[in-house]
Amino acid sequence: MRSGGHRAERLAAQIRLEIAEMIAGELRDPRLGDVEVTEVEMSPDYRRARVWIELRGNATDEQRALAGLESASGYLRRELSARLLMRRAPELSFLLDPRVPRANGTQSPPAHAN
Predict the structure, then answer these.
(1) pLDDT value for 12
(2) Long-range contacts of 16-19, Cβ-Cβ distance < 8 Å, separation of 24 or more
(3) Residue 110, in any domain of the structure
(4) How many helices (H) and strands (E) does the chain have?
(5) In terms of residue numbers, what domain contains 14?
(6) What is the pLDDT of residues 8-39, one digit of tens each?
(7) What are phi and psi of 77, to 5 degrees?
(8) Of 28, 35, 51, 69, which shows the fewest CB atoms inside 10 Å?
(9) Which is more confidently placed, 71 or 111?
(10) Number of structural domains found in the chain
(11) pTM of the full structure
């Protein structure tokens, strides 16, 4: 889903910062306690964004955090649209960053590496 171009990189960086800020300060969901946004990848048409997250915890904590982020995705999109002055914020999909070691000491295969 990588799109070449400076605009896509800038937009992905802004989205990463805004989502990280909202998770840290505005979302009151206890499932999102130790979530860190590591990377955002934009689709070429800017309609979809993959948000890669890091979470230190077991598999249950990871699934709870992903469920919490999915339930907050509408709020996050609405806020992104307002904060970044976008007519339409991208559809967000949240994934565990495969580069981060898991709680059981293994790493997931690199799903988004080219």
Answers:
(1) 95
(2) 16/40, 16/51, 18/79, 18/80, 18/83, 18/84, 19/51, 19/76, 19/80, 19/92
(3) no
(4) 2, 3
(5) 6-96
(6) 899 999 999 999 999 999 999 999 988 999 99
(7) -65, -45
(8) 28
(9) 71
(10) 1
(11) 0.81
What rounded mean pLDDT belongs to the chain?
87
Q: Does residue 28 lie in a domain region?
A: yes
* Interatomic CA distance for residues 77 and 90, integer angstroms: 7
CB 73 within 8 A of CB 92: yes
Q: What is the CATH number of the domain that holds 88?
A: 3.30.300.20
Buried-exposed string 37-75: b where 16+ CB fall within 10 A, e elsewhere: bebbbbeeebeebbbbbbbeeeeebbebbbebbeebbee
How far apart are the C-alpha atoms of 77 and 83, rounded to whole Å?
10
Cα of 43 vs its chain's centroid, Å: 14
Sequence-distant (≥ 6) Cβ neighbours of residue 84 within 8 angstroms:
11, 14, 15, 18
Domain annotation covers residue 57? yes
Gap between the terminal Cα atoms of the chain: 10
